[in-house]
């Protein structure tokens, strides 16, 4: 079943140009609204709805570069699909910090991953105010379009114009100093919500110990449940997993030294030290507060985890969690340029399966896909459930670390995979799987991804057939979109 699409180059040592890849991190200041040009194929008329995507669009302030791409100001992209045509629109999230820095023409805030105010340590010492950059994800739920950044409150946007409406505290559920993580899950049929859809999210409150807050919302953003649990030590948790009965958190084995940050010598992200010899703490939290179950702590050497693909319950004592794991954490060097990354020197993200036994508190782990991969996505109706297919962004070559240039489809039943590659000039974003109307099988749908064409210095939108990963349509944008992070699909057409 392993396949490589016809537009891929033969496997070689470096099937990409580093100079082309680097230009994908150029800032994009244009904000426009227009219909995409069809380059090849045809957009299926049955593909109707809207894809929202978020990511750092501004990677410098008046020529002063950010230290890390995760510090770039958030820019929302909207792709509206209707009757075989695709309308595109992009716009920056006008956060308070964005507006202030654009008016000042310089960096005014310290950011999490190393960006500092000009002027050296004296200008940064004991300044703990962070800019909410709203750059990580965007969701449409309860008639609200929200730009998310895990370090702060969500920003509400107008879904038609993408105009920033302001901070949204979700009917007063969130406090002024609270946050709302960038990786919510939508459970399609929640047993804890009369088999109705449920949005589940969390946020991490740091301190001498860490507090994990979890939230369950109904389809109208009414709060169903909120829980808070303390766990020992510092927690760097970007994502989590859910099943019908549990929230699952992998607490990465990292330590945080606040002194260089407090003295203005380093950004917060540059003060994190990964300890690969130590185990991750796995926290399994019962979702039903009336179940009588207690929180369980398990341990496993899992490396470093940014993203989980899915999780499900085997029985009432065993859970499976599928995750992208790194043997090492790419620590941020304050003297480095993120565009000069040495891919070959870094460990790739790889797909692992963890089987948690709640009775024995033993975790088994298995390397499933050694190929470099990231940004896992599943059929929306399979969230938290046993499933067969996982879609991921992947490297062109089968071994080693490299930029993400293709899409990989993994079949848990046959343990085989398909690969579509856009090497040597294409660099992909997170895939989104959209089921076909009245589909009968799990992979009957389309895989959507935004591709940066390094040869043209422009972005293209690609639609793949879910079963075969055959490219069925490619559309062109007028300019490039910097490498993004996460997004979401809705079946409503918003244009």
Rounded Rg: 21 Å
Helical coverage, percent range? under 10%
State the end-to-end distance: 39 Å
β-strand percent reads 35-45%
Number of strands: 35
Overall 3D shape: globular
What structural class is derived from the secondary structure elements? mainly beta
Largest sheet: 6 strands, antiparallel
Number of domains: 1
Task: Provide the residue-averaged pLDDT.
Answer: 95
- Low-confidence spans: 1-12
Oligomer: single chain
> How many helices does DSSP assign?
4
Q: Within the CATH hierarchy, at the fold level, what is the topology?
A: Methylamine Dehydrogenase, Chain H
Brief description of this entry?
The chain has four helices and 35 strands. It has helices spanning 18-23, 96-104, 121-124, 258-262, and strands at residues 33-35, 37-41, 49-58, 60-61, 64-65, 73-82, 85-92, 137-141, 144-148, 155-157, 164-167, 185-190, 196-205, 209-217, 223-232, 241-242, 246-251, 254-256, 272-274, 280-286, 296-300, 304-313, 318-326, 350-357, 362-369, 373-377, 389-394, 406-411, 416-421, 426-428, 432-435, 445-453, 458-465, 471-476, 487-490.
